[in-house]
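Researcher: I'm preparing a figure for a lab meeting and need a structural model of a single chain. I don't have an experimental structure, so a prediction will have to do for now. The sequence is pasted below. Please return the structure as tokens so I can convert it later.
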Amino acid sequence: MSGENLNLWSLFKKGDKDAFLKIYHSNYEILYSYGFKISANSELTRDVIQEIFADLWEKKSTVADVVHIKAYLLKYLRRALLTKITAEKKSLGLNTNEENLFEVSISPEDLLIKNQLSKEQERKILDALAQLSPRQREIIYLKFFDELDYQSIQDITSLSYQSLRNTLHKALQSLRKILAIQIIFFLLIINRL
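Model: Understood. Here is the structure written out token by token.
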């Protein structure tokens, strides 16, 4: 993490409103995008983002020192959304298994924003990604679209390092099988392996 970000977090913890607003504004879009993929509910996502920032401001002096602000906020958002979704599902008498709560989907817009793909490539990749488990899609999203490192993803998902690596490996193996020759394009497009 850059010294500027460390300083920004330190200033926020001391009550600097400008630092707090900079953290909020520089992370809002990624938080919203990730949160919406989890909840599929725009209003809930916005509300929870506001709640976590209100909570952060209220507890600013006691908040831990953070090495990776984006990963910390994504984890906080994920946990808060999980709590809300679980409570809502319990009140409706639905399954609250965490694995089933996260239907992270990668939209054509995500692919187009990330890379310039032909319509055919886009369709093949989306079809292949749809065949992965929700957990695998979430990890693919965090690793390749949000460009987070393993430690950050591990912090967000609460998976052990080995489980994370195994899940990513299995997801990529599945994509290789599904895409066959198209995996070459996928790897070139992602350009992160």
